[in-house]
């Protein structure tokens, strides 16, 4: 086996990974950061890029060390935790967040500018029924159509966004204004938590297995070899994702003079496209967003239905498709702003846990893979993550801040880092006292007894 793949194949792998995360949903968050952060945009984007880009690559690398699936990775804590974490993850990926978000984004960008703002609820309902109906149709049977469509759309989408960005640089829509209140302090950490909304790290836990299989399809088997190739391809992916998100933030930051403040990134992108490129621009980006959205929806609906078909085999894959499609339709019609607001508490709970799992699997051999360390860390992170989720849901935020504000970084949404470290230390002490045996991971990504 020759481990030195030519650059052309590494480039293909890097672009494939980029295509996995280039969709209708994850281009709407950086623009709103740009509008709200104003002159503090680049500080906020520093935090945003960590959770929205950098951790995506680490999540997939973590899967190569953790057994190849999110269930096996989370199972190092406890089987019941793995089940709860995975169920919440797949529900967020499917009917509770990503599918409604994607459908709403497509409506905001491709349909709403055409039909106008009158009878928005009715048009959204009609569109969502048709769009999710098409998602069901394409998800019903395994087909390469969507995969081929995705490969065709990605370069077209990239070129269109490039035209939009270059136009915005050559002819800026306006000056970058002053930051809004929430971006006047704790800007970096604010951007850090806003990166959660892309959900790309959580999606990487689900779709990362596809990427790992594609690499191993070249004959590369060991974790060490996979990681080496991944780093090379990942640099290409990272460059693309960073360029994408920074460009979207630039458009948002310079758009206020031209289109005013908007409630979500979908409106910013749609109205900026029309302002910069005219009516043709809105039709072009609308078409590509629609096609990209359908591929995202099909991938997510198929993944969540397959997972629940596995853990609850008494209900068939096709029945799960119908169940989750109906739920997606219901949530879609709450509107994009409501969807983002409703999903935020769940993401504030899941993201810290996901980050903790990534760190733990890479540090596994430092504490000999002892389960108590996994448990202690997750408990430490989870306690504060639950509190952050409650605050985001509007449940006694002032009382929670008053009681737990002594925890460093708590009011900025990052207190779980400190409690996670404390949990790690306590778990390590417990493991030592109990003389707990552990499991190491060798260079081939295989588990070996301590």
UniProtKB/TrEMBL annotation:
One of its GO terms (cellular component) is plasma membrane. The keyword Nucleus does not apply. GO terms for molecular function: L-isoleucine transmembrane transporter activity; L-leucine transmembrane transporter activity; L-valine transmembrane transporter activity. It is found in: Cell membrane. InterPro entries: Brnchd-chn_aa_trnsp_Livcs. Its main location: membrane. GO terms for biological process: isoleucine transport; L-leucine transport. The keyword Transmembrane applies. It comes from the Bacteria. It is a multi-pass membrane protein. The chain crosses the membrane at residues 12-33, 39-60, 81-100, 120-140, 152-174, 194-212, 233-253, 282-308, 320-340, 346-366, 373-390, 402-431. Keywords: Amino-acid transport, Cell membrane, Membrane, Transmembrane, Transmembrane helix, Transport. NCBIfam families: livcs. Belongs to the branched chain amino acid transporter family. Component of the transport system for branched-chain amino acids. This is Branched-chain amino acid transport system carrier protein. It comes from Jeotgalicoccus saudimassiliensis. The gene is brnQ_2.
């Amino acid at each position: 086996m020759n481990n030195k793949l030519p650059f052309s194949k590494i480039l293909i792998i890097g672009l494939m990974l980029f295509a996995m995360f280039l969709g209708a949903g994850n281009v709407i968050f950086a623009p709103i950061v740009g509008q709200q952060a104003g002159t503090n945009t680049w500080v906020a984007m520093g935090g945003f890029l960590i959770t929205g880009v950098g951790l995506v690559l680490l999540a997939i690398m973590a899967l190569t060390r953790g057994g190849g699936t999110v269930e096996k990775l989370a199972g190092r804590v406890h089987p019941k935790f793995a089940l709860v974490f995975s169920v919440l993850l797949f529900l967020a990926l499917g009917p509770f967040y990503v599918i409604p978000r994607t459908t709403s984004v497509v409506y905001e960008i491709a349909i709403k500018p055409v039909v106008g703002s009158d009878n928005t609820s009715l048009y959204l309902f009609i569109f969502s029924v048709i769009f999710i109906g098409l998602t069901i149709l394409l998800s019903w049977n395994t087909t390469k159509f969507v995969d081929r469509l995705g490969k065709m759309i990605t370069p077209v989408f990239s070129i269109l966004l490039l035209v939009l960005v270059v136009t915005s640089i050559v002819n800026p829509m306006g000056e970058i204004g002053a930051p809004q209140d929430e971006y006047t302090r704790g800007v970096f950490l604010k951007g850090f938590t806003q990166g959660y909304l892309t959900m790309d790290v959580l999606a990487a836990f689900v779709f990362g297995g596809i990427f790992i299989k594609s690499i191993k399809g070249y004959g590369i088997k060991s974790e060490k070899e996979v990681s080496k190739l991944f780093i090379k391809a990942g640099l290409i992916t990272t460059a693309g994702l960073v360029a994408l998100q920074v460009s979207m933030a630039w458009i948002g930051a310079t758009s206020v003079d031209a289109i005013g403040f908007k409630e979500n990134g979908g409106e910013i992108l749609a109205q900026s496209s029309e302002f910069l490129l005219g009516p043709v621009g809105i039709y072009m980006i609308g078409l590509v967003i629609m096609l990209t959205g359908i591929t995202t929806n099909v991938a997510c609906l198929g993944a969540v239905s397959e997972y629940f078909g596995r853990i609850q085999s008494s209900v068939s894959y096709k029945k799960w498709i119908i169940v989750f499609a109906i739920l997606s339709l219901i949530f879609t019609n709450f509107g994009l702003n409501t969807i983002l607001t409703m999903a935020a508490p769940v993401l504030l709970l899941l993201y810290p846990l996901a980050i903790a799992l990534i760190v733990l699997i890479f540090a596994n051999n430092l504490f000999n893979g002892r389960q108590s360390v996994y448990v202690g860390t997750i408990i430490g992170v989870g306690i504060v993550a639950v509190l952050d989720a409650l605050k985001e849901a509007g449940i006694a935020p002032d009382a929670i801040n008053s009681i737990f504000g002594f925890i460093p970084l708590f009011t900025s949404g990052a207190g779980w880092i400190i409690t996670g470290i404390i949990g790690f230390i306590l778990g390590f002490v417990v493991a030592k006292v109990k003389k707990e045996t552990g499991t190491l991971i060798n260079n081939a990504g295989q588990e070996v007894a301590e």
